[in-house]
Amino acid sequence: MELIQQNPDIEAYLAAGEAVDHEHRLVREVSERLADAHPDAYAYAEAAFAFVRDTVPHSMDSGDLRVTWRASDVLGQRTGICYAKSVAYAALLRARGIPAALCYQRLTEDDGSDPVIHGLVAVLLPGERVWARQDVRGNKPGIDARFSLGEEHLAWTVRPELGEVDHPELYAEPHPVVLAALKAAPDRPSLDRTLPAGL
């Protein structure tokens, strides 16, 4: 699938924003710690991926009731759903000058019911010509997402026959529908009931 930059200017995918607040002190501290141990851009991107995937529990898996949506809050509170974890990973990448975009899948249950939007990150490493999607959702039995610039290793592969979709658009900030759902939810159970079914 060819990924499409919503903004043709690559600088948009390096900028700090309301959610991808990579100029925040906490994001910078985490970034600097990771970069000290992994100075190469590829090694850093892989280490930041593992850090967000493995040390920030997905709140639906952990039962955490808090809702986070800013990168600094995700890293500070160590919780978030896929959208929030993706924002944190994008911020850590941008903090080191690596272009990062937010992108999405539409997923369903096995019978095609209960559609929901799932959040991913696309990264463009130095020397690479194409964006590579990554899934920092967090692994559990049946899910084995891994960092890869070649063949994708996402949590889920879409099933078009069930109406599932890989959205090709790359966003500099969370999609407005996603961000609105996160901001409006007083807690995760409320968010569970209002997760967007489409973009």
Which bin fits the share of residues in helices?
25-40%
Structural class assignment: alpha+beta
Please write the CATH class name: Alpha Beta
Low confidence ranges: none
Number of strands: 6
How many structurally independent domains?
Answer: 1
As a percent range, the share of strand residues is 5-15%
Number of helices: 7
Strand order of the largest sheet: 4-3-2-5
Rg, nearest Å: 16 Å
Summarize model confidence as the mean pLDDT. 96
CATH architecture: Roll
Shape: globular
Main β-sheet: number of strands, strand sense, barrel status? Answer: 4 strands, antiparallel
- CA distance, first residue to last residue: 18 Å
Protein name: Transglutaminase family protein
Pfam families: Transglut_core (PF01841)
Domain Transglutaminase-like: 30-133
Descriptive account of the structure:
This protein is about 35% helix and about 15% strand. The protein is an alpha+beta fold. The protein has one domain (about 5-190): C8orf32 fold, CATH 3.10.620.30. The strands form two sheets. A four-stranded antiparallel sheet has the order 4-3-2-5, with helices on one face. Strands 1-6 form a two-stranded parallel sheet. A hairpin with an 8-residue loop joins strand 3 and strand 4. Helix 1 (about 25-35) crosses helix 5 (about 80-95) and helix 2 runs antiparallel to helix 5. The longest helix has 15 residues, at about 40-55. This is Transglutaminase family protein. It holds the Pfam family Transglut_core. InterPro entries: Papain-like_cys_pep_sf, Transglutaminase-like.
